[in-house]
Amino acid sequence: MSLQRRTLIAGNWKMNGSLASNASLLENLLAAPEIAVSGSTCEVLVCVPAVYLPQCESLLKSSAIALGAQDISAHQSGAYTGEVASAMLADFSCQYVIVGHSERRAYHHESNELVAQKALQALRSSIFPIVCVGETLEQREAGRTNEVVVTQLRAVMDVLDDGALARIVVAYEPVWAIGTGKTATPEMAQEVHAVLRSVLAERSGFAANKVRILYGGSMKPDNAKELLAMPDIDGGLIGGASLKAADFLAIIGAV
Ligand code: PGA
Question: How many angstroms is it from 81 CA to the middle of ligand 1?
């Protein structure tokens, strides 16, 4: 965590929730003292399923919790059945959108180039893209971690100018740690975060200082503190633990 970068604690609800459970989760979060004082230590965000953006926008209005989405179309508008455009997300006060989550890369065959176009579209609507990168277990065991994450990041860097680059968020999410309860050790994560930051620095020192690099992959109340203590870990992208108010609040408390 660095003094110049504001810690971001982002929940990724994935395909979970209902009108009733969303309301109860957000009401519990909004009533908590951790959220009331969070402004002085970090930024809190929830990335919700697109259909619940109107509901969550209204529940989170003028609160300390920002609203985000989990995916976005690479196109601006038009004949793309089922897709959601960046301008539509902006209509519901979305400040962030996750792009290139490993679940989308794996199950929806999203390429590095497509993820880059999605990041660009988000920025065009003044939405900050959270660009996910991460290696599979097989790639880690083959010693290819850095090569994989750097290629994923560079594809996005290639379509952005320096100004736009400084406005992205990166999330390092080792695929083998997502939803598995296995987590990278703080040292393992720090090593990859430092590599990612050095790649940003090759292009722009300003962007390298500014861009927050979140860790994702089984971040929980019991490991958040040591992960967040690493110099290049600027927050977390949290799946499972963001669905339980007590766990998400404990991670916010760990900042
Ligand atoms: P997890 O998910 O915290 O449940 O591992 C993280 C993510 O996929 O963003």
Answer: 28
pLDDT above 80 (res 2): no
Is the CB of 231 inside a 6 Å radius of any atom of ligand 1? no
Give the model's pLDDT for residue 181. Answer: 86
Q: Choose which CATH entry (3.20.20.120, 3.20.20.70, 3.40.50.261, 3.20.20.140) describes domain 7-16+42-254.
A: 3.20.20.70
Nearest to 149 by CA among 133, 131, 160, 170: 133
DSSP 94-122: --EEEES-HHHHHHS---HHHHHHHHHHH
Asked if residues 60 and 24 have their Cβ atoms less than 8 Å apart, the reply is no
- Pick the residue whose CA is nearest to atom 2 on ligand 1: 239
Active-site annotation holder among 101, 110, 135, 193:
101
- What residue ranges in 127-245 does DSSP mark as E strands? 128-133, 169-172, 212-216, 235-238
Residue ranges of domains in the chain:
7-16+42-254
- Reported pTM: 0.97
Instruction: Indicate if the pLDDT at residue 17 is higher than 70.
Output: yes
| CA pseudo-torsion sign 196, 198, 200, 202 | negative
Q: Report which ligand 1 atom has the smallest distance to the Cα of 98.
A: 9
Is residue 15 over pLDDT 60?
Answer: yes
How high is the pLDDT of residue 1?
54
Q: What percent of the chain has pLDDT over 70?
A: 99
Query: Are the beta carbons of 8 and 212 closer than 8 angstroms?
Result: yes
